[in-house]
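Recap from last week: sequence in, structure out.
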Amino acid sequence: MSETLNLKAKLGLNVFKEDKERHINIKPGMEKDPRLKRAVLVCPAGLYSLNEQGEVEFTIDGCLECGTCRIACGTEVLEWKYPNGGSGVQFRFG
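Predicted structure tokens:
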């Protein structure tokens, strides 16, 4: 019988092809906006984190392109678009 995969294992099967430009950017001057901290809590891929200074950092690799961060933080804080064709996430499970 095959083993049931947990969420982290399923996400690990996905492939992420890097784009030349990032599809998510923090808008200039919004780097310390408290709304960014919402993304730390809601990002299903866990790409947002707090550094030692309490500032939000994020990596684009592994983004699920779900838009949760955009909804949580708002379009005033994040610039969000889908990656260019042929790049971004490629789901490998289910």
